[in-house]
Give the backbone structure.
Amino acid sequence: MTTSFDLKGKAALVTGGGRGIGKAIAFRLADAGANVVIASRKMENLEAAAREFSGLAGKTIALPCHIGKAEDIERLVKESEERVGPIDILVNNSATNIGQGPALEVTDDMLAKMVEINVLSAVRLIRLVVPRMIERETGGSIINVASIAGLRPQAGGLLYSFTKAGLIMMTRTWALEFGKHNIRVNAIAPGLIKTDFSEYFWKNEEYVKRIESTQPIPRVGTPEEIGGIALYLASNESSFVTGQTFVVDGGATTR
């Protein structure tokens, strides 16, 4: 029996691919030979990542996209297909967290923006990418980056928990519907990872001390530790895996 994480000839699209978890995932996919489009609003981050990845087996292409705008998403998919071909691997990683705070202070605008970025963007990308996967009859892999906040309530995090829980349930439903086309849909639920996105938490000394005293692996995780599980889910090594949520949290949810 042989194993392979070879992604040569595959085309991947990673949203939020210019930094943090998205960048780490894009690196692993390109290193395995996939041609990867990384997208976000900040071109300076994307271009820096593309330069950094220039020596990898697969090429990396930076494309700007406001993931909250339907017209941007349509353009992103069109340009991605023109540059790297039909998408085989879709990573829905972009997210926001503007609603951190007491539940009673949540506004309609906060709710609308959180749903648009954290949930609706994935729906829109799925609607554009999956029909082409079905037409080609070559299968595909969709990876949704959720959070352990979507598995258990988080004080002060109503909207983030709500949207990530929604993404997890959509992952399971998409897996149920797309499996007959050999399209796998899985989610990754990270715990606290040291990224710019989560610095509110890992720069809080008391919060980190609590992690160090209660979490089985007593530290904050790294983006690279999410990249590895994403590579597994993108490759044929996970050919019989769909509808699952892979928790990568140092054991935080065991307590």
Q: What stands out?
A: DSSP finds eight helices and seven strands in the chain. The chain has one domain: 11-195+222-246.
